Amino acid sequence: MPAPSPRSLALDLISTLRGESMPVGALVAAAALFGIPENGMRVAIARLLAAEALARDERGRYRLGPAAAPLNQHVVSWRRLEERLARWDGGWVAVQRAGLARGPGERALRLLGFAPFSRELALRPDNLRGGVAGVRAELHALGLPAEAPVFGLRDFDPDTEARARGLWDVAALRSGYTRSRLALARSEARLARASEARSEPEANAAMVESFRLGGRVIRELVHDPLLPEPLLPAAERRALLGAMRRYDRAGRRIWAGFMARHGAPHTALPADGLAAAASGA
Fold this sequence. Notes:
single chain, alpha+beta, Alpha-Beta Plaits, two-stranded antiparallel ribbon, 8% strand, globular
């Protein structure tokens, strides 16, 4: 698996601090674990500052900037995915996507699990808390243009209903849940052995592994369409979510010593995947 870019590493590390800031020394030291030179990290920080994705506080430490806030809020909600769900009564949320340029608008649709129904419409089941109004507000916060209509639909004819229900590759989602859950279990066992060994090379390798695998699985959860029970067995998604929560705790333990040595208030696994979510959406 290739090393993260300096930009994504900086964003992902800082996104775990829940509003706290991180010194540049911690970012440079973390970059070294992935073979990223110091100058590469410093250039990335400067560019993120210019784009307002990062902000510098009075101590010269870095926190997420206003440009990164909406996406970060969505990404860190992965731990509470099940709380976002409401009972599905068969309705749909639709977005008129005709003329929607590639970029934040399309990314917003993918992050909220919409699938293209036609060149004009994207759909998802209306099973998120807050209903159509809540989805509309979140889409706009994530970058959907305000002029793009977001509305409810229901009472499809049987053929259209079947077509709408078949927009998502449910078999691929289910196999992904299983594959990721097994990968987390195997990695968690390796992290435990590395923690007991206490050697620096093993600890460093475990930190890198937890960052990469944790980030990949969190990206999977963040992009999950959260389909309702009639379309996908929810227990399989819940099993992956539970496994990722356990892995989060294991990764936090692996990173705790590094973060403490570098003056960063470590409260979560450094793999919330803010940059990965943005680029992979």
